[in-house]
Amino acid sequence: MAEAIASGVWWLHGTRGSNVFLAETTSGGLVLVDAGFARSFDGIVDDVESIRPGARVTHLFLTHNHVDHAGAAASLRQHYGALVVAGAADCEFTDSTGPYTLREQVGASHRRQRALQRILRRGAAVGEVIADRPLSGAVEVAGVRAFPTPGHTPGSYCYVLADRDLAFVGDLVISHPGGLSRPMKTANDDDAEYLRSLRAFAQCAPDRGCPGHGAMVQHDFRDQLLTLAAFSRRGLLSPAGAWGRGVRLWGFARGISRERRPDPPGAAKPHRKQ
């Protein structure tokens, strides 16, 4: 059974790759945020059915176009008839009559993403996913506020439920047992742009946040982002930095390879890493 983390918001279990969230909008509709690997499809559908039997998901919001966040998007779109919402810069317009689709290669880590896709895919490839609503700029869709946060990928977005003071932030930050960290510089398409996005979103972020990996932050999320955004990058040859990166990479790899299960309670706290 999914875990209720706020009024009308659930953190789904049985998924792989990234965290997947289900939320009721102010209009009473149901939306999903991110889709995990392709093999997350069954777990997502089972959890949605257990929460709202027979309900239809109207929108699928993608924080960015990486296979661990968008792998099941095509299957979910077909199953629910949901509209896929994604940053326009992570999409491409195939021709004058065709629809927008997610780009085959996006971000500096696309080779690793494609390798993961070949190993873990089931069903449509990410590049075959139709993006029904490509986003450009800060907008509101289906009661969800969308904020562009480019850098990790060109079309990365964060999504905010203002009435619940809650944000879904994808890979803007990663939550570890010891606190929040930023994606490694080499994982970002444009690290300088990413750092600008982090600083900008930190200024308007809500008090609670749901990263794409790791536990949600129940309190002081905005303050933690502001603290993290103020840290400079450690050099690649820094012994402390290398050790910290290794520990977090190991934890991250374990996390994306396992089925999502309930996590112990507690809010992540910021730390000076990455």
Short summary of the structure?
The protein has 274 residues and is of the alpha/beta class. It contains seven helices and 16 strands.
Tag the structure with descriptive keywords.
274 residues, alpha/beta, Metallo-beta-lactamase, Chain A, seven-stranded mixed beta sheet, five-stranded mixed beta sheet, 7 helices, 16 strands
Classify the beta-strand content into a percent band: 15-25%
Q: Provide the CATH architecture.
A: 4-Layer Sandwich
Using only C-alpha atoms, the radius of gyration works out to 17 Å
Identify the strand order in the major beta sheet.
Answer: 1-2-3-4-5-6-9
- Number of DSSP strands? 16
**Largest sheet features:** 7 strands, mixed
Tell me the count of domains: 1
Count, helices: 7
The helix/strand series, from N terminus to C terminus, equals EEEEHEHHEEEHEEEEEEEHEHH
Head-to-tail CA distance between termini: 34 Å
The CATH topology annotation reads as Metallo-beta-lactamase, Chain A
Shape: globular
Residue-averaged pLDDT: 84
| Uncertain spans | 264-274
Q: Any idea what the CATH superfamily is called?
A: Ribonuclease Z/Hydroxyacylglutathione hydrolase-like
Helix content: 25-40%
CATH class: Alpha Beta
Account of the protein in words:
This protein has a 7-stranded mixed beta sheet with strand order 1-2-3-4-5-6-9, covered by helices on one side. Strands 10-11-12-13-16 form a 5-stranded mixed beta sheet, with no helix packed on it. The protein has helices spanning 41-51, 67-70, 73-80, 110-120, 191-204, 221-229, 239-257, and strands at residues 3-6, 9-11, 21-24, 30-33, 57-61, 83-87, 91-93, 100-102, 133-135, 139-141, 144-148, 157-161, 166-170, 174-176, 179-181, 208-211. β11 (144-148) and β12 (157-161) form a beta hairpin. It has one domain (3-257): Metallo-beta-lactamase, Chain A (4-Layer Sandwich), CATH 3.60.15.10. The protein has 274 residues and is α/β, with parallel strands linked by helices. The radius of gyration is 17 Å and the shape is globular. α5 (191-204) packs antiparallel against α6 (221-229).
